[in-house]
Request: fold
Amino acid sequence: MNQMTEIALENAITSAARPLDAKMRGRDVNVFYGAKQALFDVNLDIGERQVTALIGPSGCGKSTFLRCLNRMNDTIDIARIDGSITLDGQDIYDPKIDVVELRARVGMVFQKPNPFPKSIFENVAYGPKIHGLASNKTDLEEIVVTSLKKASLYEEVKDRLHEPGTGLSGGQQQRLCIARAIAVSPEVILMDEPCSALDPIATAKIEELIDELRANFTIVIVTHSMQQAARVSQRTAFFHLGVLVEEGATEQIFTAPSDKRTQDYVTGRFG
Reply:
């Protein structure tokens, strides 16, 4: 805990962990899968151009909440969401909202790298093509190269852009998926345990990348690793049994939580 405390303190000092203007807000969010309730009255603000970490034991609702932020739960027939979630003040569950456009604004990186069975270039070019973001081949190439550079991958793949993305290492594949997400210029990036399938070296690269990306993007990350939450986030929200127990500056959550359940979790007494 001592090392984690030091990391969290250093992170807070260097990152101005106070909440910025909220990019997204969840108010009284309840989620049901059939008769089972998975989330209970969740109220959470997502600070603009900050990393917000969602932590808690397995099955506590953190991934469920994450999936609410770009309506991924819409793909589950028995899912029902009550309450409101706004992006720049607009309710994302408003029937007039174009879900495809929403998911371009709120991108997602999944637990396991899932590159398309296409070339590295086509993986990144797919979104800009679908959304009409490039008017010609030169523009498209510029978007692909810029996205790969932002994902810290370009130098490793620049000589094999037309080889399959599935031929990359696991860590490279995950960075390719991040490049694919940012190619459509999202405002928010959701990451659902993006390092859980990666080795420590690849994990460190992804964490460095997250720190760089928050200069331009709002990031929400679900992680089982409290050390990772302490390293990469400015705000942390602790979920337990579908309830948002506590949220605050990462340094405060790890060093002086106000709820005993949070303290028990971050000190390893349960979870």
In short: The two ends are 15 Å apart (CA to CA). Residues 2-15 form the longest helix (14 residues). The mean pLDDT is 92.
